[in-house]
Write a structure and sequence with these properties.
By secondary structure, the protein is an alpha/beta fold. Helices cover about 45% and strands about 10% of the residues.
């Protein structure tokens, strides 16, 4: 079945998808595409419950430390000689789960991935409403992470920059602290993704129940992920364009905030981290991340090292002409606009 605008249309889609699997699997492994991104946001459905349950379990031990006293200096409780505190900041469906994993694995050890400030606008509002006007929510959390994961190279959390980042007093206090704190510096890895792919991922996880990530070697999960990534319909072109326009403006607004506040950060993109011309991630883009953080392979990173650090397998085909049922319609609608370069056609249908 193929879904259009939330309604199913009989089109032999299941058979077509199944027949494409061997070729797509071959393309993915040859191209070295390792990572899928399906992060929690307010467009998610029940498929994200599995991910949320894993995060709750992973954070249980950490929560046991919440009432324990922390030794603080006049400035901060963070240990300059401990793991580097950092924040991975990105919209949902932008690859933060897999990026968090690789950074952790290649800098010492992977620590639990947690969307501390909330995985949706509603959750983010609720989080900051209970945090007053200071930065204790930020510093004490990072301090406890440092104490719990002493052998890690980095510790921190994923910050989905929903609207409260711009106006909640506690969020502003946290941003100001990140901008001004020294010894140690709290660093931000700012991750952006092709916004058409963000929309496609949202569409996929609205229509289908699939796992948030597939581990390498899990062929059942991988096949299901690939099947549900084929022949997706984007919806009406006017609506798609408005979504792209809105997301682009919002991403730029987040970047402007970081620049204006002089927040120490590095800008990277999902496309360069994971898929440059269908040939896998850009080594130099990853080295830029580790050089900025001051841990991990800031130089001489090998392809083999990078792939060992990636535990997730790709669950999407390499070209929009395979992902989108209405590829030609989308191509025509975006031609000549600022979003024309978002569309890529890397492999012909087989």
């Amino acid at each position: 079945m193929r879904f259009r605008g939330g309604k199913s249309v009989a089109a032999g889609g299941s058979m077509a998808r199944a027949s494409l699997l061997p070729a797509i699997l071959s393309l993915l492994f040859v191209a070295g595409m390792i990572v899928s991104t399906v992060d929690v946001d307010h467009f998610s459905n029940a498929t994200d419950q599995h991910k949320q349950q894993e995060e709750v379990i992973a954070e249980t031990d950490l929560q046991q430390h919440l009432d324990q006293p922390i030794e603080e200096t006049a400035t901060t409780c963070l240990d300059p000689s401990g793991p580097q505190p950092y924040i991975l900041m990105s919209l949902g469906r932008s690859g933060s789960g897999s990026t968090w994993q690789v950074i952790g694995n290649l800098s010492g050890m992977e620590t639990p991935s947690h969307e501390y400030t909330g995985g949706s606008t509603k959750k983010s509002i609720k989080f900051f409403e209970g945090k007053g006007h200071d930065d204790k929510w930020l510093l004490q959390y990072l301090c406890r992470k440092q104490r719990k994961y002493r052998d890690a190279g980095v510790v921190g959390f994923k910050w989905k920059p929903y609207e409260p980042i711009f106006n909640a007093p506690a969020a502003q206090a946290g941003i100001n602290t990140i901008a001004t704190l020294k010894d140690p510096t709290i660093k931000v890895v700012r991750l952006r993704r092709n916004l058409l792919d963000v929309q496609i991922s949202r569409r996929k996880h609205t229509l289908y129940t699939t796992k948030a990530h597939c581990m390498k070697g899990d062929s059942k999960c991988l096949q299901n992920g690939l099947i549900t990534s084929l022949d997706l319909y984007t919806g009406e072109m006017d609506t798609l364009y408005k979504h792209l326009e809105s997301l682009h403006a919002y991403e730029d607004r987040v970047d402007k905030l970081l620049h204006e506040k002089n927040v120490p950060h590095v800008q990277v993109t999902y496309d360069r981290l994971y898929n440059v011309d269908g040939k896998g991630g850009d080594i130099e883009e990853w080295e830029k991340v580790f050089s900025f953080l001051g841990v991990g392979p800031a130089s001489n990173l090998t392809r083999e090292q990078l792939e060992r650090g990636m535990k997730h397998a790709a669950t999407h085909p390499p070209g929009h002409n395979m992902t989108l049922a209405n590829y030609d319609e989308v191509a025509g609608a975006l031609e000549g606009t600022e979003f024309e370069n978002l569309l890529h056609r890397r492999h012909r249908r087989v």
